[in-house]
Amino acid sequence: MTLLHFFRDCIAQWFRGSWAYWLWLTALVGLIALGAWHYGLQLDRGLVVTHMTNQVSWGFYIANFTFLVGVAAAAVMIVIPAYIFNRKDIKDVVLMGDTMAIAAVVMAILFVVVDLGRPDRIWHLLPGIGKLNFPDSMLVWDVVVLNGYLLLNLGISFSVIFCRYRGCEPRLGYYFPFVVVAIFWAISIHTVTAFLYAANTGRPFWSNPLLAPRFIASAFASGPALMIIGLQVIRSVSGYPIRQSVIDHLAIVMTVALQVTLFFIGAELFTEFYNEGEHAASVRYLFLGLNGHAALVPWIWTALALLGSATLIGTIHPLRRNPWLMNLMCLLTIVGVWIEKGMGMVIPAFVPTPIGEIAEYAPSLAELAISAGVWGIGLLIFTLFVKSALPIECGVLRHDGKPKPDGRCALPGKLEEKPV
Amino acid sequence: MTDKADLARRHFLKGLAGIAGASAAALGTPAWGGSTFADAFADFLQDHYQRMTPEEIQATLDRIERKARRRYGVELECRNTPPLAGVVFGYAINIDKCRGYRDCVHACVEENNLSRDTQYIRVVEMEDGSTDLLRGDHYYDPKDVPRPGRYYLPMQCMQCDNPPCVKACPVEATWLEADGIVVVDYDWCIGCRYCMAACPYQARHFNWGEPQLSAAEINPVTHYLGNRPRPRGVVEKCHFCLQRTRAGRQPACQDACPTGARIFGNLLDPDSEIRYVLENKPVFRLKEELGTEPKFWYFRG
Amino acid sequence: MRRQGLLIPALALLSATGFPFAAGAVDTSGWDWGAVEGMTDTPVVEPRRDSMPQRTTPAPPPVAAPDLEAPPTPAYALFLGMPEFEVIQSTRDTEMHPCGNCHRWAESDPTPRPLQAPHDNFVLRHGLHGKGQFWCFTCHDLAGDGSLRTLDGEPLGFDEAYLLCTQCHVDKGRDWAFGAHGKRADNWRGPRRVYNCTACHYQHAPALLYRDAAPGPVARQGLERPVHWVPKAERAHPLFEHPAPWQRDRGQEPQ
Q1: Residue B166: how many CB atoms within 10 A of its CB?
Q2: Is A139–B232 a contact, with Cβ atoms under 8 angstroms apart?
Q3: Which of helix, strand or coil describes residue C195?
Q4: Quick check: helix, strand or coil at residue C51?
Q5: What is the value of ipTM here, to two decimals?
Q6: What is the pTM of this model?
Q7: Which helix (H) or strand (E) holds C148?
Q8: What share of chain A is helix, strand, coil (3-state, %, to 5)?
Q9: Contact A3/C at CB under 8 A
Q10: Computed over its alpha carbons, how large is the radius of gyration of chain C?
């Protein structure tokens, strides 16, 4: 019964908000509708509506999927300081981190679903009634760990927020084991995704040991960047107390991750180009163009410039502490990593094909629209979850109807923060 | 998978199918993309080829024939010939003899009911003195073939003994059969295309849209794992014409080659032509260093 | 080119010494080479690497003349003990050359010579060996209806052309018997039906002809091929375009 009330109250929160909130929701729903309409086209006519070919058989969908799995894994950068190092300020936002992970994993799974040629046969992946190629297929591992991570995060977040809704304080000893599992699981989802690519020995662009470390490094740059922006939005539109120290912590994590990412990219460039052989054909296509085909060259150099600038801002302390520059750094990181790990990682492995054919790829309108729709779904999930969670976290929304605000929040106004 | 779980799953699927069948008995009109509701529902619930009972397989074959009749107006025969005992197929191409005609490519398209925008075989024009596939030309169209200073490498599925695509498939929709052919269950494939990323020979092809196939072009002698008309959204590839080879016939590409550059046969038969070639000619395989163990050789002489 | 350059003088040398090309040997010293349309040398492409080792030792001497006193090997001995096969009958040969129409009643002149009308439209282009080494009656039976004969004079049917060809092309004959050469029709197991040599190689001018290739790869439905797949360089990026090490023409750039 309490559960039903919980859901009823949570859903009721979704319909209360300022005009800005409703505008945001309208925009998201519009994006989702656009994506849904194009997905209807794709269901009707098949994947011909995309520009993928037999030569480049994975494209924009899988590029976004890769980026989002990284974002999901990066929630661990909030969970570790919150629970392992017991930082109180970060503990306040750990639910936001979990919510971001949930939204990112849902988006990742959706991107795989929209990429399938036969989504009606998705039940073939269900253990028991389907037929799972476990443990050989890395894609099965990816499905298992992604769904497991989703369940873990849903479970942990739900148990914490439901407990608070009922007025009790969640018992650390009860859910701490799950948190530890979630920490390792988060690293594993992105490692398994990297292994999915690295397993293909016929594609030397992917099949190198540095792919998994690169994935983790760029994930720990892009995830916190998104988190910083999300947290600042939450802080400004609600009164939820997010200390500046949280933002600083995330910014430092991001900076180190960016430095490591740049180092990894440099190591890769040296290894490929010093004694350039044919295994470097894909890298050459990406950075310099191959036989006159150079569609991705401006993109990757832009991404490197963005990441380099972001690293510079992050490394120089005064620059990083400037809120405008820090937000710029986040934006640069998100776009840079999205290019470098998305299209810049997925497409070049298909160009040239393993038997030497060059066929370029650029996403079609349908792909862009469907991808926008999926991003809209993820952002909507994040918005609605946070919308319900904030009042509960602040003690305003309780099951017994007796709000017990703990003074930290000042809803609906803003809280003056004392920077730590 | 335990027998109990197997049985439970079978009962579950059968139950669903039973409900569907009972409720759809009156709805026999072909409205579901050319199928009746009953057929469409049975399609949806169809089990994996390796788990179906002989009766279920026969029902599936009948359904395929009905669909072909409705869709193309063609009386199709869909068989399920099992692999021959004591047979493992191998293929060898004499690159001294291949002149780049591409007759094999088009014979395959016709024999295997390929969508006209798909070709299982790709002939690569290589430069003499080089085995560099990156310098190969896939789109050669000279006035005369063979071009001087060039040789030709026809490439198709290598039917690897250690196939990376089989390892990659998440739902085991592709597997290595006892006679050495790597086959695809087109009704089980979910279209994730991971196998296409895994294949080092670019041998697997995807049906991005509805197969471009007209009724007049259909070859009515088909096999469930071979050349029966495929649906949209699934992966397919060369299957050594198993509708022909399991009946003792040569594959269509070998049949079409005017120069006799293609040698096909049973690797386990010491008197076969393919064994003679492997034992007496300088043979090589492509990308052997990847450990895929292809059963497709090239030789000179 | 180097190899061919050696071969013609060597053959000329051999023929001058009366190299016994079995019973069909002819004295070609009086022949007008210009009158017989010869097959031009197949163009040989020079290897691209100019690091080919130069010959520093003299070429090995030509093969010694065979022992004329030894009994000749029967043409079919090559195929003893080889897998069974059945040759697919070809009707092309007799249809193309109805020699018997005239030579059933007309006398055949056995003298090797450049042919005049009504045969001047017919030339024997049987490779380098054919140019003066043998002519019609090396392979065809003078006395009979124009059917074939071995070098020993044994008669052969047209379906046994493989016996004739493999008298000289022994390695190819062995390969053909075992299936590495030629083409097996219909089935890969069971009775072996193979095509005769003449099914592919027109016996009087065996060099294979050129023809157009069938159309190449097609673009996926819904995509235009030129937009994405132009194989030639189309959009060179001025800042970064330079050939990769393996794309530089090794013949021109000194390394």
Answers
A1: 20
A2: no
A3: strand
A4: coil
A5: 0.92
A6: 0.84
A7: strand C148-149
A8: 70, 0, 30
A9: no
A10: 25
